[in-house]
Design goal:
By secondary structure, this protein is mainly beta. 3% of the residues lie in helices and 52% in strands.
Length: 136
């Protein structure tokens, strides 16, 4: 399913949020008081009032790639998003990690992931399920 832009108005008929483009549905992730999502042109962070670009450093690697299967989870102050990027001219599945407190980011490459899940408990961490996992 594809989500396209919409305009929301407050009670004074003033524009509150505007986005034009395609949002990848499963990338929409609640991260504390914010929502972060991947759109066709890059990552966005929505704080309840306005939406702004984040992680622009990845834009050139996401260009012209269909990320309909992008998927995000949030755990322990970090966003994890499974995406496809073009690295060295080759499409690769990677996990983008984004720390909300200091806005730092890094990639996990060669992950071979089918889906992401988060377990939050005393020792918080994100859990990834691989395609060729051996379960015991």
């Amino acid at each position: 399913m594809e989500i396209y832009y919409q305009i929301l108005y407050n009670d004074r008929n003033k524009k509150r949020f505007y986005f034009q483009g395609k949002i990848y549905k499963k990338s929409v992730t609640l991260c504390g008081d914010n929502v972060i999502y991947l759109a066709k042109d890059g990552f966005y962070r929505f704080n309840g009032v306005s939406s702004y670009r984040v992680m622009k450093c990845y834009d050139k690697y996401l260009k012209d790639i269909d990320n309909s299967n992008a998927e995000g989870v949030y755990s322990n102050g970090k966003l994890y998003v499974k995406v496809i990027m073009r690295l060295d001219g080759v499409k690769n599945e990677v996990i983008v990690v984004y720390k909300l407190d200091d806005k730092s980011t890094y990639l996990l490459k060669d992950t071979n992931i089918t889906s992401l899940g988060a377990i939050d408990g005393e020792n918080r961490h994100a859990v990834a399920t691989t395609k060729n996992a051996n379960y015991v």
